[in-house]
Amino acid sequence: MISAEKLPENIQVNKKGHLKHFLTTEGLSRQLLAEILDTAENLAGVGERAVKKVPLLRGKTIANLFFEPSTRTRTTFELAAKRLSADVLNINIESSATKKGESLQDTLHTLEAMHCDMFVVRHANSGAAHFIASMVSPGIRVINAGDGRHAHPTQAMLDAFTIRRQKGKFSGLKIAIVGDIMHSRVARSEIHAFNTLGVKELRVIAPKTLIPAYMQAMGVKVFHNLESGLRGVDAVIMLRLQNERMQGALLPSAGEFFKMYGLTEKRLALANPEVMVLHPGPINRGVEIDSEVADGPRSVILEQVGYGIAIRMAVMSMCMGSAE
Amino acid sequence: MNICISKGRVIDPANGLDKVTNIYISKGKIAAIGRKPAGFENKKQINVNGQIVIPGLVDLSARLREPGKHYKADIASETRAAAAGGVTTLCCPPDTTPIIDTPAVVELIHQRSEQSGRVKVVCLGALTRGLKGERLAEMYTLKEAGCIGVSNAMQAISDTEVMRRAMEYAVTCDLTVFIQPEDPWLGGGIMHEGAYSTRMGIPPIPETAETLAIARDLLLIEATGARAHFMRLSTTRGVEMIREARKRGLPVTADVSIHQLHFTDKDTENYNSLCHVRPPFRHHSDKEQLIAGIKDGTITAICSDHQPLDHDAKMGPFSITEPGVSALEVLLPLALKLVDDRQTSLKTVIKAMTSAPAKVLEIESGSLSVGAAADLCIFDPEKNWTVSEKTLISEGKNTPTLDWEMKGKVTHTILNGRLVYKK
After folding, report:
1. Burial class of B357 by CB neighbour count within 10 A (0 to 12, 13 to 18, 19+)
2. Residue of B193, B205, B310, B315 best to disrupt the A interface, most CBs of A under 10 A
3. Rounded to two decimals, what is the model's pTM?
4. What is the CATH number of domain B3-52+373-383+402-422?
5. Which of A3, A126, A147 shows the shortest C-beta gap to B273?
6. Can you give the pLDDT at residue A51?
7. Catalytic, out of B305, B310, B375, B380
8. Residue A218 contacts B where some CB pair is shorter than 8 Å
9. What is the pLDDT of residues A192-251, one digit of tens each?
10. What ipTM does this complex have?
């Protein structure tokens, strides 16, 4: 029986310590994360050239396996693959909670038979990328484009990239993540990445209903009050608030959420004067962020999108370039 | 046939017995222990020098998957596994397909298990029809058909009025209510709420999912006078509540599954679907308190909570795999491991798997009293073996103990004086 428990701890790296799969930012060394950022820095210029292509992955086939709908992430992965000269297959698979791993296996084996070299996977269940990485043949690489509430490592790295570009370093920085921490794979991946990269302080700010139990164990300070959480921070990462959170007992309304946690110019003034405002997108204006802030001088939301392509190019080329 | 089991270390907690001696079996019953009865003629002698002879294990919960889920396992395969695990009596929960809410299903299970002839199978009848928690099941009829208790299995009854009336009706029928304490709303997650569920992003099941259900049902037990058995405790606070209730004299007992005493939420760290169980593996401190509960008798029984699954049921991302562990064959070795690890005594674990569960089921079993049915489990306490898909007889290979080196192996299982398993 193939099961995740038989995986070595470092399923993501090969014997030489090179990146093989990119499933989570957890458990990777600071050196490796920095290498991802440095590689992205080298590749960031490609998109600005007249010929936006480098031949790093020529002849390789990459399958975007999306078990959950996504436009942005899928598009940036597709662009990243194409700029590396790879052939790209986009496969959207209708997924439901009742769908069994059996059919997931069948899908994977079918694609393997078509000689794909890399799977970029998004799935609604936490641990899906690990499961897939444990299933595929040794030569195939897996990149996690978001699994349940667990991880979205390329998003975390592009945020780290955006921050490093402006601040130059991570040491001494205070970063706050605001919003639906409980359901956020982005938040979890950022927490591991920023802590490994050596930020001074990491905060999460949300109502108690959106903070999971034992949050502090991940190495963060928890705030339920936005004002006190924003004081003195160098970067604020706003998370998207899904509409369905207002259906159950987690939040009463979008309006009340904005009243308590919406990022406005006035509140932003409590942060460090050089504060950066990030958001993984798509933004909900007037729910988690005021338009004035989203479009204002402290916002780097649009830059993030461009950097996302560079990060994904970096991760794809690193994984594909590593030996078994 | 007359059998003499000679030179084994005989341990029978029910009779305070622990010594190297002979057991004489005649006409399916225990004829004598120690001195050979007058006129006893050996037809067969089994020398078990260096081995331990105990009453056949009484397992409070094992799913046989028949009727309804033959693709996972069936009565023939799982009773073979039970015999190989030294289990001579097992209790089948009512969540078969169809559910045990009619005498026909009880009869079918009894018939098939008698055909297999390897283990005595007793059934719990449904507490509510279809386990839906709405209308009472025909408890009296089910009792007539042979059910020894009633339960809603894993289906929580959310309507407190229904729960109250079901308890009252069970009192009327003089049946013990077997309760799996889980709040239907708080129990909606997948793994224990703790640092690991947060890190892994798996929907959590808080401790209160168990304790709220225990609190509610203890109050209803007090109000209705029902006799109840709480199944599969998993939390520290849950153990405390049962301890306190017993101290106050409430007629309640409790059990724990053997794997809860060995695994914690940390074991699910790598999304190991074999550790997906319900109730979930909890914190290390909960595990310690469950063991403390066994030592002081708050938790009277240890069961296998055997749930054999097909291969595909465990293939997939953690959350969408099926919960459950195949455990009949590792019940005894895992219990012996607790003794080896100096967590508790041999006598305590044997009692928790023999006379104590028999008492919960109110059946004459789990002891080596003269005149009792000769149901025996004989094991070699020093024998090492490795758990693997090959060594397991059960159709369910779903155990997180795969590849574990176990110490202690059943060598003979005797049912009504008949050898039903021999290694």
Report:
1. buried
2. B315
3. 0.93
4. 2.30.40.10
5. A3
6. 82
7. B305
8. yes
9. 999 999 999 999 999 999 999 999 999 999 999 999 999 999 999 999 998 777 778 899
10. 0.90
Q: Is B55 helix (H, G, I), strand (E, B) or coil?
A: strand
Does the pLDDT at position A150 exceed 80?
yes
Residue-level pLDDT at B54: 98
Q: Would you call B320 and A1 a contact, using CB atoms and an 8 Å cutoff?
A: no
Q: Do A213 and B198 touch (CB under 8 A)?
A: yes
State the smallest CA–CA distance between residue A266 and chain B in angstroms: 32
Q: What's the pLDDT tens digit per position in B4-62?
A: 999 999 999 999 999 999 999 999 999 999 999 988 988 899 999 999 999 999 999 99
Chain B positions touching A146 (Cβ under 8 A) are none
The mean pLDDT value for B168-173 works out to 98
CB-CB under 8 Å, A188 with B199: yes
The closest of A259, A268, A320 to A296, measured between CA atoms, is: A268
Picking from B199, B270, B314, the nearest residue to A7 by CB comes out as: B270
Same fold, A4-151+306-321 and A153-305: yes
C-beta of residue B358 within 8 angstroms of C-beta of residue B365:
yes
B272 touches chain A (CB under 8 A): yes
Count A/B contacts: CB-CB distance under 8 Å: 108
The answer for B 309-338 residues in CB contact with A (under 8 A) is 311-312, 314-321
Q: Which of A9, A101, A188 sits opposite B315 (nearest CB)?
A: A101
B317 and A213: CB-CB below 8 Å? no
Q: Where are the domains of chain A?
A: 4-151+306-321, 153-305
Residue A9 predicted with pLDDT over 80: no
**Is 3.40.50.1370 the CATH classification of the domain at A4-151+306-321?**
yes
Tokens 């020093």 belong to which residue? B382
Residues of B in contact with A239 (CB under 8 A): none
Numbered ranges of CATH 2.30.40.10 in chain B: 3-52+373-383+402-422
Q: What angle do CA A148, B277, B268 make, to 5 degrees?
A: 55
Are B349 and B291 in contact by the 8 Å Cβ rule? The answer is: no
**What is the rounded distance in angstroms from the CA atom of residue B181 to the CA atom of residue B156?**
7
Chain B CA closest to residue A96: B320
Q: What is the pLDDT of residue A4?
A: 38
Contact: A104, B274; criterion CB under 8 Å: no
Rounded distance, CA B334 to CA B325, Å?
Answer: 13
Per-residue pLDDT band at A98 (split at 50, 70, 90): very low
CATH for B56-361?
A: 3.20.20.140
Alpha helices in chain A (DSSP H): 30-43, 72-83, 101-113, 128-135, 153-167, 185-197, 226-230, 254-261, 265-268, 291-294, 301-321
Structural tokens at position B350? 């044997």
List, by residue range, all CATH 3.20.20.140 domains of chain B.
Answer: 56-361
Q: Assess whether A312 carries a catalytic annotation.
A: no
Touching B: A residues 172-211, CB under 8 Å: 185, 188
Fold of A153-305: Rossmann fold (3.40.50)
A323 touches chain B (CB under 8 A): no
pLDDT, mean of residues A32-40:
97
- Model confidence over B59-85: pLDDT tens digits? 999 999 999 888 888 999 999 999 999
B189 part of contact set with chain A, CB < 8 Å? no
Region A113-138 average pLDDT:
92
pLDDT at A324: 66
Once rounded to an integer, what is the mean pLDDT over residues B326-341? 98
A102 has a pLDDT exceeding 90 = no
The pLDDT value recorded for residue A99 is: 53
* Region at A191 (left for phi over 0; alpha for psi -120 to 50; beta for the rest): alpha
> Distance (Å, rounded) from C-alpha A28 to C-alpha A10?
8
Catalytic residue list contains B174: no
Instruction: Give A-chain residues touching B270 at CB under 8 angstroms.
Output: 4-5, 7, 9, 130
- Are the CB atoms for B18 and B53 separated by under 8 Å? no
User: For residue A293, what is the DSSP state?
Assistant: H
